[in-house]
């Protein structure tokens, strides 16, 4: 079972609740023992990525003083394409020509999903915690 490099319990953990690593490990191991049933992933085990494992550990590892889970339900919104990233040297088409992903800045123009020019509004931090592979 892969482990998070660093787990920090949710900020919503009650003061009298505790983190039970054994309970959290059990839930993570259970999910990672499951296998996909359809499509190209059929027969392959679930492999939680860090943000997914964080949620599972928060839900199943944070216990109230009576031993019951603090959280019984969760509402999680996740944007499309989470877990995918582009290498910083990936060429990006712009109205001015090709530009490397890592050289884009707010205000630069790129093409949107419909092929129309739009502006880069902000940058996200570079995630160097995961390995990237060229396919």
How would you describe this structure to a colleague?
With 135 residues, the chain is α+β, with helices and mostly antiparallel strands. The chain folds into two domains: 1-80, no CATH class; 85-122, no CATH class. 19% of the residues lie in helices and 13% in strands. The chain is built from two helices and six strands; from the N terminus they run E-H-H-E-E-E-E-E. The strands form three sheets. A two-stranded antiparallel ribbon has the order 1-2. It has a two-stranded antiparallel ribbon with strand order 3-4. The model has no long low-confidence stretch (mean pLDDT 87).
Hey, roughly how much beta strand do the residues contain?
Answer: 5-15%
Mean pLDDT: 87
Separation, N- and C-terminal Cα atoms: 25 Å
Major β-sheet, in short?
A: 2 strands, antiparallel
Order of helices and strands: EHHEEEEE
Unreliable residue runs: none
Q: Structural class of the secondary elements?
A: alpha+beta
Physical arrangement of strands within the biggest beta sheet:
1-2
Give Rg in angstroms: 20 Å
The number of strands is: 6
Number of domains: 2
Number of DSSP helical runs: 2
Q: Give the helix proportion (percent range).
A: 10-25%
What general outline do the C-alpha atoms trace?
Answer: elongated
Which helices and strands occur, and which strands form pairs?
Blueprint: E1 18-19, H1 21-33, H2 50-61, E2 62-63, E3 91-94, E4 97-100, E5 109-111, E6 117-119
Antiparallel strand pairs: 1-2, 3-4, 5-6
Concise summary:
The chain has about 140 residues and is an alpha+beta fold. It has helices at about 20-35, 50-60, and strands at about 20, 60-65, 90-95, 95-100, 110, 115-120.
């Amino acid at each position: 079972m892969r482990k998070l490099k660093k787990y920090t319990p949710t900020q919503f953990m009650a003061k009298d609740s505790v983190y039970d690593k054994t309970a959290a490990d059990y839930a993570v191991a259970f999910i990672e023992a499951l296998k996909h049933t359809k499509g190209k992933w059929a027969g392959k085990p679930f492999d939680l990525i860090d943000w997914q494992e964080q949620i599972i550990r928060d839900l199943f590892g944070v216990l109230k003083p009576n031993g019951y889970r603090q959280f019984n339900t969760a509402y999680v919104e996740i944007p499309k394409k989470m877990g995918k990233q582009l290498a910083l040297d990936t060429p990006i088409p712009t109205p001015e020509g090709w530009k490397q992903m890592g050289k884009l800045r707010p205000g630069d123009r790129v093409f949107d999903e419909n092929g129309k020019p739009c502006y880069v509004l902000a940058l996200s931090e570079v995630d160097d915690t995961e390995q990237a592979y060229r396919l």
